Amino acid sequence: MKKEYTAVGCFFIAISAFLYAFKKLTAAIMSSYINTSEVTYYEGAHKLIGFGMTFWIFTSFLAGIIFLLIGMWPPIQKLLQSKNTNIMKKK
User: Fold this and answer.
1) pLDDT at position 14 over 80
2) Between these two residues, 16 and 50, which has the higher pLDDT value?
3) Which long-range contacts (CB under 8 A, 24 or more apart) does 1-4 make?
4) Cβ–Cβ under 8 Å, residues 30 and 48
5) Which residue ranges does UniProt annotate as crossing the membrane (predicted)?
6) pLDDT tens-digit profile of 53-74?
7) Handedness of CA 54, 57, 60, 66 (dihedral sign)
């Protein structure tokens, strides 16, 4: 297993989770003083944050998954090869 790639993948996934939580928290803070009992402006504040934050969340998550798969590929490959040889031995 390539531990460096796996660690980098976990780091990017953690950054993605942090950005996602920060986006929700920012929307809650932006709308906290203007909400009334009849109307909630959270959805509007959430949309106001926009595509930029969503882009970085998605990009970070995708990079994390790619690095995680690269780091975990040798053990997965060995597992698949051992299953294939067990199937061939049974035949």
Assistant:
1) yes
2) 16
3) 1/71, 1/72, 1/74, 1/75, 2/70, 2/71, 2/73, 2/74, 3/71, 4/71
4) yes
5) 51-73
6) 999 999 999 999 999 999 998 8
7) negative
Location of structure tokens 């950005």 = 19
Question: To which residue do tokens 């996602």 refer?
Answer: 20
Q: Phi then psi for 58, rounded to 5 degrees? A: -65, -45
Structure tokens at 25: 């928290």
Cα dist. 33→22, 27, 40, 48 in Å?
A: 18, 11, 10, 16
User: Given phi > 0 = left and psi -120 to 50 = alpha, else beta, which region is 2?
Assistant: beta
Amino acid letter at 75? P
Question: pLDDT value at position 6?
Answer: 93
Residue 87 neighbours by CB under 8 Å, 6+ apart: none
